[in-house]
Amino acid sequence: MDLTNNVPSPDNYVEIVEEPLVHGSDNDHHQDADTTPHHEPDNDAHQEEHQAPPDRLQSHVEAVVDKTTYRMRRLERNPMKTTVTCVFCKHHHYSDLCPRVPEVEDRRTIATKKHRCFQCLLDDKKGHPCKEKPCHYCHRIGHHCALCQRAINKWMGNRKRRPEDKTADNNHRRQK
Fold first, then answer.
1. pTM for this one?
2. Rounded mean pLDDT of 111-139?
3. Which terminal residue of the chain, N or C, has fewer Cβ atoms less than 10 Å from its own Cβ?
4. Dihedral pair phi/psi, residue 123, rounded to 5°
């Protein structure tokens, strides 16, 4: 059983993370512009064979979030001047990178109040045909990547431990 066939290479992580900088709208990147190959299982017996084990899933989420954290810092310094508008705060950045509404529960509350679909963040009142696309961070179906609890937990941990904070912490340890 070779599980590495279904795990994206590190090169694909970069494509996934950098792809939003090319696309024009939030929903285009996150739900419609899926460039990762999909393999349909032949039957239920083979489905487990195609799923990444939890350790690989966690390392995948960490790798994507680490790249996203870098991109987030770059966007904080140089905001995008595009048509991309965050669903949560209406500023010009992708919804999954919203620094003003970083908590999943707050994002879910806003999405609910604005009648947004949790799968694609489109207006739920219009009865749109929602595609079940996997989250770009954890590859699970059922939530938009801006609502991915695993990615946000990792991202929030990274924000608390920025490199400049680590340097100050290391200097403190040396003084003891």
1. 0.46
2. 87
3. C
4. -60, 115
pLDDT, one tens digit per residue, over 61-115 is: 666 666 666 666 666 666 555 678 999 999 988 898 898 999 999 999 999 999 9
- Expressed as residue numbers, the domain containing 154 is 7-33+52-171
CA 161 to CA 66: how far, in whole Å? 12
Which of 104, 88, 106, 96 has the alpha carbon at shortest distance from 71?
Answer: 96
Look at residue 127 and tell me if it is in a domain. yes
Residue 45 forms part of a structural domain: no
Query: Residue 59 in 3-state DSSP?
Result: helix
CA proximity to 151, closest of 83, 98, 89, 112: 98
Alpha helices in 7-127 (DSSP H): 10-18, 26-27, 44-50, 54-77, 104-113
Q: Is residue 135 domain-resident?
A: yes
Which three-class secondary structure state does DSSP give residue 83? coil
What is the pLDDT, as a whole number, of residue 127? 74
Distance (Å) of CA 11 to CA 15, 18, 47, 64: 7, 11, 25, 11
Domain count, the chain: 1
Q: Structure tokens of 6? A: 């279904």
The closest alpha carbon to 37, from 59, 15, 17, belongs to: 15
Confidence of residue 3 (pLDDT cuts 50, 70, 90): very low
Q: How far apart are CA 117 and CA 43, in angstroms?
A: 30
